Amino acid sequence: MSYFHVNTGILFSSKICVITAYVLTMLFFGCGGSSGSDATDTTNISVIPPPPEPIPDPINVKPFPSGIYESAAAMRNPETDIVANTPRSPGQVGVLVKVNWNLCGEDLECLFDTIQLNLDSAASLGLQVGLGVTDGDNLPQSIKDACTIFEFEFRGEPASMCLPWDQQYIAAKVALITQLAQRFDQHPALSYVYFTGACSTNGLEGHCRIDQQAFTKVGYTQEVLSASYLSIMNAYVEHFTVTPIVFEAHAIFDQPNLWEAVWAEVASTGKVGVAAWWCAERLSLNGRETATIWPLIQAIATETFAICQTVASFSSEPYRFSDSTLNLDYGEQTDWHENDTQAAFQETFDWLQGVTVHAGQAEPIVAFTTVEMWSQDLKNEAFTSRLANF
Description:
The chain folds into two domains: 1-53, no CATH class; 67-388, TIM Barrel (Alpha-Beta Barrel). The chain is of the alpha/beta class and 390 residues long. The chain has helices at 108-125, 141-146, 167-184, 212-217, 222-239, 257-266, 294-303, 338-352, 375-378, 384-388; strands spanning 67-71, 92-99, 128-133, 149-154, 157-162, 190-194, 245-248, 272-279, 306-310, 370-374.
């Protein structure tokens, strides 16, 4: 509502006169028929603008992620709404959105608009988003042109990355993190954001599957790589002030040291968790890149939160949860059946929820709070009941 000021004195007659807030100047001798001018001088009327819309209170701290998320396929084209196509299965609370840093080439505004599209879509559907912006081979060309490149192969294809300690790369990465946080940290649909590092051979996971000797020749040491990863993690912690941060953990060159150093740096913040994208009972006990990192994952699960992304789809690859040395039998690649999919699913969920163990652990584990499910498994009606009650 607009308001006006009265500039001259008002005379009262024997009758009570109601003066509206819309009149700035009234010249009169009395109400209703008194002698004097009936005209209103509006030449000096000034309008008080309406009060501004209230600004929503900022989010102080978001809760740790929990529940079932779809691990959606990586985005291939700009302005793609991955979230709109999620199965929305019973029990599902969110979607993991994976997007390449170079999705739009050099156009960061296009990249951010695509992320915005998915976050807004999730908000409209009452869902949450875990966000991972890739690193490694997936950098805009201008950044690769400015940094020292290390070439490698990924799945038989040539790939390249900036050396993780290259200062041009670090500056570009910190700038990206800063801008992402400025735009999305307060978005209510953003549940958690993934740390990603240069040495991730697929851009998201915490492994570094390259030739260690060749890497050493160009300057790699555990200390140098750790220092570069810490500088990136500190940027996430500094700029994402309310959104939980998560890093995926594999042993790097068979050692857990790098991720132990990262955790030691950020444990006191109380807002960093861990993910295992190789999540399977057998791999917590056997596995060159996984068994050695398992104690750290359990330690972090105790302090903050842990995310399980299963090593494979129960629906199509139950045999990948098998290990004959541990008496875990869910079929073989050339010989598996529907009962294997059910057994792998039910027993793995018993394990990851801390209900029971089936192999070498002495007692149930500290449970994972979140599971990033393969899309095929979310659509499997045989799994619906358990997922709905996760």
